[in-house]
Amino acid sequence: MEQSIEAINSIIRDRRSIFPQNYIQKDIPDEVIRQILENANYAPTHKMTEPWRFMVFKGESLKRLASFFSERYRSQTAPEAFSQARYDAAGEKVMKSNCVIIINVELHPEKLPEWEEVAATACAVQNIWLTASAYGIGSYWSSPGVLKELGAFLDLPEAQKCLGLFFMGYHDGAELPASKRTPIENKVTWAS
């Protein structure tokens, strides 16, 4: 058991946000992605609603997702302000990733408040993040201001909401920055 504690402590404390500009061209096997998502499925869930929903974009589907961001830039920009460089950059993070997982939550308002479903989904994403880190896969969760538009683009059912994108890719192995956390003692009160 002691070995398990050491492993989980290490994985939790070594987890970092690693961004697409640090990803290398190396395929994440589908079986690894399935394992990562299987671990997400073991997040805590009140009333067993299991509200997390994921959409995996990999290979050719990444181009479609990148196009959404580029075309959104075009549609939101006045012709005189349009920049081809910004258009190209709009989908760049997607195309530098080997895999992007869209994070959605399925709400059950008749059973639970929305915040509980979002919290459960965030726990599932933490499981994804920790598992990806254990596999040596760089990743980070992004919640751009276009989530409602992204939900429409994805044709999400009415009961679902998009919570963001989870970018993934093997990374260049550069030394990761140390984690910066203030002491836990500053955040805990022991009740008497």
From TrEMBL:
<keyword id="KW-0521">NADP</keyword>
<dbReference type="GO" id="GO:0016491">
    <property type="term" value="F:oxidoreductase activity"/>
</dbReference>
<keyword id="KW-0520">NAD</keyword>
<dbReference type="InterPro" id="IPR000415">
    <property type="entry name" value="Nitroreductase-like"/>
</dbReference>
<dbReference type="Pfam" id="PF00881">
    <property type="entry name" value="Nitroreductase"/>
</dbReference>
<dbReference type="InterPro" id="IPR026021">
    <property type="entry name" value="YdjA-like"/>
</dbReference>
<keyword id="KW-0285">Flavoprotein</keyword>
<feature type="domain" description="Nitroreductase">
    <location>
        <begin position="12"/>
        <end position="170"/>
    </location>
</feature>
<keyword id="KW-0288">FMN</keyword>
<protein>
    <submittedName>
        <fullName>Nitroreductase</fullName>
    </submittedName>
</protein>
<dbReference type="InterPro" id="IPR052530">
    <property type="entry name" value="NAD(P)H_nitroreductase"/>
</dbReference>
<keyword id="KW-0560">Oxidoreductase</keyword>
<dbReference type="InterPro" id="IPR029479">
    <property type="entry name" value="Nitroreductase"/>
</dbReference>
<comment type="similarity">
    <text>Belongs to the nitroreductase family.</text>
</comment>
